[in-house]
Fold each of these.
Amino acid sequence: MITAGPTHEPIDPVRFIGNHSSGKMGYALAEVFANQGADVHLISGPVHIRAKNPNIRVTRVKTADEMNSVCIQELENSDIIILSAAVADFKPENIATEKIKKTDKNLTIQLTKTPDIAEGLGKLKKQGQVLAGFALETEHEVRNAIQKMERKNFDFIVLNSLKDTGAGFGFDTNKIRIINRSGKIFTYELKEKSEVAKDISRYIEANFHV
């Protein structure tokens, strides 16, 4: 099971809270695993990419609540779970049923937390399942990534930095570090996301029996 892309949390019928995630990394992972013969369930937020391999079953969602619901339903039948989606942390407490009109007054939107998909799956994970997540950081990168991995019960975490040119949202390339539960760091050079996906796949194959 792989998650990809952003989530869009509606403010009104035409506006939403979201982020710049393109879904390219998650889709690259799905293609690599499917090409190796895996049955892949890709849970995708709103992106402009289409899966190519017929072994990829795609469920399209928009919000964090929708993605969370599908992930929980599919967890039982998943050997490897890779959470590469950039899920919005907050959503409007109330969604306007009509388009909000522009006025001279400032607009205040009350926000509430979205479900923490990774933390929830980490609590539900069973022995033998591999759970991995991503961390996109701007400061104290390794420390923050390790804390996230431990808090969410990941078996390993993939760290990328917005400080690295050509890495992060929107690019066809990525530069990652994989950190395991022992704190060991595996560093990879900047490369196409399709090749990064292969590196992650090889790491799982070398370190886990699934």
Note: The helical segments are 24-35, 64-75, 117-124, 141-151, 193-207.
Amino acid sequence: MNIFWETIAHYNAGTWIYQVLITLIGIALTYLLFRNPTHKIKVAMKLYLIFLNVWTAAVYYIIYCEPRSYNNALAGFWGIMALFWIYDLKVNYTPFERTHKHTHLAILLCSLPLAYPLFSLARGMSFPMMTSPVMPCSVAVFTIGLLLAFSKRVNIFLVMFLCHWALIGFTKTYFFHIPEDFLLASSSLPALYLFFKEYTASRLHTSTHLRARMINLALLIACGAIGILFMIAMACELAQEQVLLK
């Protein structure tokens, strides 16, 4: 646990000015995407999401979280997320078209990253050992909010990966004493339910869609395996910390 919070403190101390700039750019792009979703704005948002995922993988996990034994696995996770968005930028699978079905929840989720440091301050923490808007869980909840607002067509693999990150957030709230992650884990549950409900309704609405059902089963198996691997990695880290404490 000490290593976990120490890496967060080093990350915030070394990157706070960049985090401020990244957050301001994100606020501006999100506002423009909701108000005036032109082609250039949509492309700019996808480039921003690619940057966020690469930043999380390279800067947060590989550089600042190097003391954590599972940092490479999680860096790979966010690297895969970046590849999803690079692929999406090329084929435009997620066109960022509004459905106007879940606007209020989507706006709430997009705004939650700004609440992470406020929540830390409210429970007596101080800079730099506190959560910030440009951290993995903050990026995850922001991405879920965007996809929910523009959910006419989304990459279901990306949604499943975000679902697993939310489940990982539940474990961290206990093991690392980071209740801020309840913001991700609890708020993402209704959003993820809505994603899967719409996905099932649009693709699995008849029993003859055997291929669609097989794809859905494959997604569940693949993401289940990923979740188990991450749980094992975190359990190994906890066991290592207990040995060091003894």
Note: The radius of gyration is 18 Å.
